[in-house]
Write a structure and sequence with these properties.
Lipocalin; five-stranded antiparallel β-sheet; five-stranded mixed β-sheet; disordered N terminus; globular; mainly beta
């Protein structure tokens, strides 16, 4: 039935080591004094020609025990071309007791994931390729002990490298760089430190990360061409005493923006460092007299604006006697222009008449970068509204005045930037969570979520939703007050017609929350779960209204109630 990859992992390691083949060899030799902190620059290997199409991966918990679903299950990773179910292939082998977090590489021909088995009793990374001619899976370093840990794995933009941070002994932490052959380089072998977030530059030629090597959390950059680690960045301006709490590459890859606090001032501020002069950090936010912190920022897609939130304390006078009765935290949203080097205040009303402060919830740029959506405490008591901002910093309230007790749970832009979908929640009744869509062309919004089978009295609570890639449809996940089960719906925005996708459920069944669109928008993967009987996985094609039960592919096998989870579509290979 299956196209199994018959590669037993332990045997693979023994054979490749005996033959001198490339395995996951750690480069641990320390460079001489005065040399770079890391080995010589690295040359990218050639891309493999294998290019799978329409690929979907998922994790399956398999069990041959008919008396208990979760009795010693084996975890395996599968992939298939969704146009041809006979291509179903298992990428893993052996008894795997733990497998989670598979990530596709940008080429769409390989995945990395965390696993544990009898040989490797603690978590470690494996890299598996879909091409059957390649040696796979590849071990990403030594198995951890009970105090070690892996975290923060990131593929390079071209998919040729995987970078991750790990501590093998629970003390020193290093960043590892792995190529497609499984060879591993430690980019900071001399440093004994804690590593924070790691981020690839947009071009994939550098890696920025946070390290406490100097005693403070600061930003360092590793260059793949030279093999040099430079940093801490910006030390000459702020004397190396900043604690960096958040940083991001600019979209053009020429600078890094981060939030840092100064020891003597103890307030978070926003800085930018150009990589051609990394010793100089420029403060972006305007200086303010009050006590404040910059708590969040977000680049526009084109990199011409930077939105950031300044949080401070303002006095309030409840009894009207002219004296402050206390301090309230209040948020102000600004747009910083990279061209003009100026900051413009977006939300000019930041305190209500009763003295209550207004707080920014979240802010998202549209895919085109023309609009910024943000939520803020409403003027009505116990409510939250949502606003749109164009790049001239004009705020437009897109919701009707929210009744007391309503707030915006979260929002998500359509891929083409024409619509903003958001969930409005009722504090007093958690089952009232409506899905609304704001139309940026016609400047109106409407509720698109539907009730149960047309019964208006039945209350629905939308928990999450996903746009299809061409912005014409929304799949959303919703429960009902009367039955308490979670179901999956599909809304066609052009017709306004919604339909339930899942079959009729028993009271113990629910649609799983991890439903996903294929990159071409022609298929939707989702699952149904039962606490005793396992799970069922489905592929649905809206154009033809055809549904494929992935479980049916296991009917000829001896497995009992497989549990399927973590559906992941390959990012490429979806052309006709």
């Amino acid at each position: 039935m299956f196209n199994y990859k018959k590669q037993f992992f332990v045997l693979f390691l023994i054979i490749t080591a005996a033959c001198g083949g490339k395995t996951s060899t750690l480069v641990e030799s320390n460079p001489p004094a005065g040399d770079p902190l890391s080995p010589d620059g690295i040359v990218s290997p050639q891309e493999e020609s294998f290019s799978p199409s329409h690929a979907l991966s998922f994790v399956v918990e398999e069990s041959n025990n008919p008396y208990g679903l979760f009795t010693n299950p084996t975890h395996q990773l599968y992939w298939m071309d969704i146009r041809d179910p006979s291509t179903l292939t298992r990428l893993t082998d052996g008894i795997i007791s733990f497998l989670e977090g598979p990530q596709w590489n940008p080429q769409g021909d390989g995945l990395v994931y965390l696993f544990k088995d009898s040989v490797h009793p603690y978590e470690t990374y494996l890299m598996a390729f879909l091409d059957p001619s390649l040696n796979s899976p590849l071990l990403m370093g030594s198995s951890l002990n009970d105090v070690g840990y892996f975290e923060s794995s990131k593929w390079s933009p071209d998919g040729q490298w995987l970078a991750y941070s790990a501590s093998l002994d629970g003390n020193s932490e290093h960043i590892y760089l792995v190529d497609r052959e499984g060879d591993i380089t430690i980019i900071n072998p001399d440093l004994v430190e804690d590593i924070g977030d790691i981020f690839w530059s947009p071009l994939g030629d550098q890696i920025a990360f946070i390290s406490d090597r100097s005693g403070f959390d600061q930003v360092y950059v590793y260059d793949l061409t030279s093999g040099l680690v430079s940093g801490p960045l910006g030390a000459s301006l702020i004397d190396g005493n900043e604690h960096v709490t958040n940083f991001r590459w600019a979209p053009d890859g020429e600078s890094i923006v981060y939030i840092a606090d100064l020891d003597l001032v103890t307030k978070n501020e926003l800085y930018q460092i150009n990589l051609d002069s990394p010793e100089v950090a420029t403060k972006l936010n305007s200086p303010f007299a009050d006590d404040y912190d910059i708590k969040a920022f977000n680049w526009s897609p084109q990199g011409n604006y930077l939105a950031y939130v300044r949080s401070s304390q303002i006095p309030y006078d409840l009894d009207g006697d002219g004296f402050a009765d206390g301090l309230n935290p209040v948020d102000r949203l600004y747009l910083y222009s990279v061209v003009d080097h100026t900051s413009t205040l977006v939300n000019t009303i930041f305190q209500n008449l009763d003295g209550s402060a207004r707080r920014i919830g979240f802010f998202y740029w549209s895919p085109t970068g023309d609009y910024l959506a943000y939520t803020i405490d409403a003027e009505e008591e116990d409510s939250i509204d949502i606003y749109l901002v164009d790049t001239l910093a004009n705020s437009i309230k897109i919701t009707d005045p929210s009744p007391p007790g309503y707030f915006i749970q979260y929002a998500r832009w359509s891929p083409d930037g024409s619509f903003l979908g958001y969930i409005r929640h009722n504090f007093t009744n958690p089952h009232i969570r409506e899905l609304l869509v704001y139309d940026l062309v016609n400047h109106n919004d409407k509720t698109v979520s539907v009730d149960v089978e047309g019964v208006v009295s039945t209350l629905r609570g939308v928990l999450s939703f996903a746009w299809n890639p061409d912005s014409s449809k929304i799949a959303y996940y919703s429960d009902s007050l009367e039955r308490g089960v979670f179901e999956l719906f599909l809304i066609d925005l052009s017709s306004g017609i919604g339909k339930k996708l899942n079959r009729d459920l028993s009271d113990l069944e629910d649609v799983a929350a991890n439903f996903r669109w294929s990159p071409d928008g022609k298929a939707l993967a989702y699952g149904i779960e039962h606490p005793v009987e396992g799970s069922w996985a489905y592929l649905y094609w809206p154009e033809t209204e055809v549904t494929l039960s992935i479980n049916s592919l296991w009917e000829e096998a001896s497995l009992v109630r497989p549990v399927m989870r973590e559906f992941r579509f390959s990012p490429v290979g979806w052309e006709e």
